[in-house]
Amino acid sequence: MARPIWSGVISFGLVSIPVGLYTATKEHEVSFHQFQRGTGDRIRYQRVNERTGKEVEYGEIVKGAEVGDSRYVMIDSDELDAIAPGRSRSLDIHTFVDRTEIDPVYFQKTYYLGPSSPEAAKAYALMRDALADSNRVAIGTLVMRGKEYLTAIRSDQDVLVLETMFFADEVREPKEQLDVPARAKAKPQELAMAMQLIDSMAGTWRPDDYRDTYTDRVKELISAKKKGEEVTVAEAAPEATNVVDLMSALQASVEAAKQGRPSRRPSTGARKAPAREPAERPSTRAKATKSAAKPPAKATTKRTTTAPAKKARKAS
Question: Model's pTM, two decimal places?
Answer without folding.
Answer: 0.66
